[in-house]
Amino acid sequence: MSGLELRGLRLRLHGRLLLDIERLQLERGACLYLSGANGAGKTTLLRILAGLLPPDEGLLLADGASLRWPRAAARLRRDVVYCHQAPYLFRGTVADNVAYGLRRQGVPAPEVAARVAEALAWAGIAHLAGRDARRLSGGEQQRVALTRARVLAPRYLLLDEPTANLDGEAREQTYFLLRRLRLEGIGLVVTSHEPRAVSRLADRHLLLEGGRLRELPLQGPRSGPGLARPGGGP
Ligand SMILES: Nc1ncnc2c1ncn2[C@@H]1O[C@H](COP(=O)(O)OP(=O)(O)OP(=O)(O)O)[C@@H](O)[C@H]1O
């Protein structure tokens, strides 16, 4: 089996069974749209999938191995990167922010420089490399956050409301990068309150309701493979 599969995932919070998921499969190069009402548990589920929060029960199947927590969490942290709803950029340049994770992994400096340069070019933000990351627009900050995630070469990327608070152009730029990530073989899980926009990108739509996942049809037209950069920028 390729991909990751979670079985029998359960989490109780304040005496309430918040998550009660029999089976959830993530595939590389595919995009899963996860929807649900406020407080349904979407962010909590993403944190479990990223290995940041242990469930009460659950099993991870990965590359033929069957893992329970905490070994499952270690495996998830290796394969999965979680992008917060409001990307946290620390004080420093855009290049420093993108390099941070690689430096923490002990990657040698020349390789860090090369991978950061490649990732910034990929996102069309090489011209922002020396800028103070905290003084960028919301759309630029989101592109930095996606670049910082991609430079770690994850197999799966979890995006919590990646286009919340972005205007039309910045939203298109974000969807453009998400389509590219998917085409590069990264598996995506996207939460959003914009079903039509995400449905253009997604292969499946799962609704989280009452702790359970239910498959729903995708809404609206699917986008083709076209990858013209919005706004005609770099
Ligand atoms: N660390 C925590 N401690 C206590 N309760 C929590 C914690 N994290 C989440 N919750 C509760 O769990 C429930 C699900 O929260 P979660 O943030 O996962 O929902 P969500 O579907 O992402 O919501 P939204 O769409 O509003 O972002 C909420 O009732 C929330 O208050």
Give structural notes.
With 234 residues, the protein is an alpha/beta fold. It has one domain: 3-Layer(aba) Sandwich (Rossmann fold). 32% of the residues lie in helices and 26% in strands. It contains seven helices and ten strands. Strands 6-7-8-3-9-10 form a six-stranded mixed β-sheet, with helices on both faces. A four-stranded antiparallel β-sheet has the order 2-1-4-5, with helices on one face. Strand 4 and strand 5 form a beta hairpin. The longest helix is centred in the C-terminal third of the chain and has 16 residues. The radius of gyration is 18 Å and the shape is globular. The relative contact order is 0.18. The mean pLDDT is 92.
List keywords for this structure.
about 230 residues, alpha/beta, Rossmann fold, six-stranded mixed β-sheet, four-stranded antiparallel β-sheet, globular, binds adenosine-5'-triphosphate, nucleotide-binding, transport, ECF_ABC_transporter_ATP-bd, AAA+_ATPase, ATPase-coupled transmembrane transporter activity
